[in-house]
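User: I'm putting together notes for a lab meeting next week and I want to include a structural view of one of the chains we've been expressing. I don't have a solved structure, so I'd like a prediction I can at least talk through. The sequence is below, exactly as it appears in our construct file.
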Amino acid sequence: MSVTATAKLPEVVELELAKYSNTIDLLHAGAIDADKVFRPFRLVHGVYGQRQGGENQMVRIKLKYGVVTPPQMRALADTAEKYANGVSHITTRQAIQFHYVQLDGTPALLRQLEDVGMTTREACGNAVRAVCGSPLAGTRSDELFNIDPYAEQCFQHFLRGPLSASLPRKFKISFGTTDADPLQQTNIQDIGITPVEKDGKQGFRVVGAAGLGSMPVAPVLVREFCAKEDLLPVLDALVRVHHKYGDRNNRAKARLKFVLKARGEDGFRALVEEQLAEALQ
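Assistant: Thanks for the context. Below is the predicted structure for the 281-residue chain, given as structure tokens.
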């Protein structure tokens, strides 16, 4: 099985792939430090070093709001066999992970994925991770409108964004369809977004700063109703809160939920309004 490119890649992607390949060359030449320089660099590109040692890598591939096309499925099958061990691991946050990828094979792998519209950019590290969406989007009789176009806008807005890969800790976003949707995950994310209607106008309810782990935190209501045109600025403000106020000294307390715990609900919402004002300047 083989998959070939059908369109020229954007210049930003070409430059990124060239830099990635060149950085691996610098690593092999001993020109950069493996831990201090290369490790954070490869994480931005969705590449983890596996603990078995050697050059085994885990590569995480974002599937935008859980959508994958037939050509992309063929590319995943092809690359899993060509670069990994033939297994595609599906994650709980709508990503695909390959294991046992050799480091020198990652540049070609990343290019082949980009050729079919998939990316590993910011799939790992202290970054805005995959934007998730309910797999029932567009199928439920009780949904107000399809979330996919708004999830796409969100994905594109944060991909390679100025703050997206320099956060204190990872940051997760998810779109639901309705409160009755059993597959929506909006209440366990850094940002959860659900379509709502108010006074005949469609928009979104936005909650934030939730999390699971050993210290689960329920989300805070950020907007009971957010107009569609205001959604990206509000989401951007929440990312800015994390960037500015997240704990960069204690990784164990660096998630956005700890800002909420420290500030309280009213204090947290005040930080969002502060950052929203800055974002709109």
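A couple of points you could mention at the meeting. The longest strand covers residues 95-102. Residues 256-279 form the longest helix (24 residues).

User: Perfect, that's what I needed.
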